[in-house]
Amino acid sequence: MPVFNVMPTASPHLHPPQHDPQDLSLFESARMDREMAREMGQNLKRRNNKSAIGTALANMSTPRLLILMTGVLLLVGGLLALRFPVFLPDFDQWGFQINCGTGFGSDLAQASTADSAGTHFVGQCYAAIAMRRAWTVPVAVAGALLLSTLLLRPTRRHSANTETACEIPPLRLSWSSPSRMLPESS
User: Which parts of the chain register pLDDT below 70?
Assistant: First the structure.
């Protein structure tokens, strides 16, 4: 059985509907402001301010980027560890683990209440907080020192002196013959 492909012929009166643009005067001022800002270069300044950090990170050398990431990790890690609560491994008479406060400040209310049996929980809390501060403060300070070295030590840039140094031909060393080194006899 033969199959016939029947293509409908396009009639001249079948066109996509044409829509007249509505009055867009509401958006006209915004468009005009964008065009004026583009002409005056304000748009470029706005983009540069937004991507300044990204550009700085992209232009950083690998050792400086590693120092930056290590410093940020150490500083944030040390400050977060100071922020977390310090607990004793013991429990009070109600079955709650004894909370001593954080590395930033001590809260000895629970320890002093549970200390009635002569267990010296307050002294143990002081020792636990001191132990937390003993390792977290140096970690945070090390991170801050790494970050401050990035601020104090400027980036190395190629100067005109290094470019001209490449253009100077290398020195040629020549060894004098042994006969020239001997003193002349008269």
Answer: 1-30, 41-50, 154-186
Going by DSSP bridges, is the β-strand pair 85-91/97-102 parallel, antiparallel, or unpaired? antiparallel
Burial bucket for residue 103 (CB in 10 Å: 0-12, 13-18, 19+): buried
Q: How far apart, in Å, are the Cα atoms of 177 and each of 48, 91, 174, 182, 186?
A: 64, 90, 9, 9, 20
Angle formed at CA 105 by CA 115 and CA 124, multiple of 5 degrees: 30
Q: Measure the CA–CA gap between 165 and 163, rounded to whole angstroms.
A: 5
What does residue 97 show for φ and ψ, rounded to 5 degrees?
A: -70, 140
Cβ-contact 61, 158 below 8 angstroms:
no
Residue 98: closest CA among 81, 85, 116, 82: 85
- Whole-angstrom CA distances from 11 to 5, 14, 93, 101 are 18, 6, 93, 84
How far are the Cα atoms of 46, 58, 143 from residue 158, in angstroms, in the given order? 29, 18, 29
Q: In the numeric block, which tokens belong to residue 19?
A: 């829509």
Per DSSP, the three-state class of 16 is coil
What is this structure's pTM?
A: 0.54
